[in-house]
Amino acid sequence: MGKYQARVCGDVIAARARGTSDGEPSLVDSADGRGAPQVVFTDPQVCAVGLTEETARAMGFGVRVVEYEIGDVAGASLLGDGYAGRAKAVVDEGRGVLLGVTFAGPDVAELLHAATIAVTAEVPLATLWHAVPAFPTVSEVWLRLLETYGL
Fold it and tell me: Is the pTM above the cut of 0.70?
């Protein structure tokens, strides 16, 4: 986040030096509000981006939560016997976009950037459906979450 905030700050300083508007979308730090990734490097790892179910409901969003056992995707078997983990997606039902995603399991921090992009860019679930995950990898959990959602 520090690197991100420094980039935004540098862009604003440069825009002001050029005499251009500092209200341009590229000069507004939007990741602080909805796209700040968090990783707890424990064993197993826990990571999240965006809103939790509780926060989203408190903010008045109509949400639906979808969960999936990461150990059930084919790619998990490549990481070792007995791989176990959990994925949770918080969906804004009104707009069909992800408000937040949480992963818990071995090495799940590697899944977080895709979630950060989906949450920050407010990518519609119908569009994510066409983002084909590599097979067999743990990233197949994205397909399984969307299937569980009902796409």
Answer: yes
